[in-house]
Specification:
The protein has one domain: dinb family like domain (Four Helix Bundle (Hemerythrin (Met), subunit A), Up-down Bundle). 60% of the residues lie in helices and 5% in strands. It contains seven helices and two strands; from the N terminus they run ααααααββα. The chain has helices at 15-20, 26-42, 46-49, 60-82, 94-101, 108-128, 147-169, and strands spanning 137-140, 143-146. The chain has a two-stranded antiparallel sheet with strand order 1-2. α4 (60-82) crosses α5 (94-101).
């Protein structure tokens, strides 16, 4: 649906996430990524979900909450760009979001369910976007992004954190 964006379509900070998203149909990748994530999350119980691999690092619950919050923010940005809203959008300080969210007070099942519903809703949204919108540019965090870059960043950001969960939390 949307071709891979170039690195000029987002801030340098996000290039790592663009690299994590594969060539090909990004919507299909997001669908398969959701199924992989849910399969992984099913292996984690409530006790494990509170695990931190090191003091001061996020718990597994906080990682999933961060994934959900970040996807929600980037999907909102994509919606604004698709609707040609000219307003610049604010940034997001991830550590502040996690600190204020109280993810560790919520059940693991609830956090997984929220991520699942959000991703499924975003897939419907992204499929509704006309391909001609791919290169629409908006501003977020004081930086121009294309709509397609936002969708690829969502995929790459999730991929990045799924790898971290596997390597540092669940190995």
């Amino acid at each position: 649906m949307f071709d891979r964006p170039g690195f000029s379509e987002c801030a340098t900070f996000y290039h790592h996430y663009l690299r994590q998203a594969p060539e090909g149909n990004i919507i299909t990748f997001l669908e398969k990524q959701l199924e992989r994530a849910l399969t992984l999350f099913e292996t984690i119980d409530e006790e494990q979900a509170g695990f931190r691999y090191q003091p001061g690092k996020w718990s597994i619950k906080e990682v999933l909450g961060h994934l959900t919050d970040t996807e929600r923010v980037f999907a909102y940005r994509a919606l604004c760009f698709a609707r040609r809203d000219p307003q610049p959008l604010p940034g997001m300080e991830q550590d502040d979001y996690v600190l204020q969210a109280n993810f560790n007070e919520r059940s693991w099942t609830d956090l997984v369910e929220e991520f699942n519903y959000l991703r499924r809703s975003n897939l419907v949204l992204f499929k509704s976007f006309d391909p001609s919108l791919a290169r629409v540019v908006g501003t977020a965090s004081g930086v121009p992004f294309t709509l397609r870059a936002l969708i690829y960043i969502i995929a790459g950001h999730t991929e990045h954190h799924l790898k971290i969960l596997g390597e540092r939390y669940l190995s």
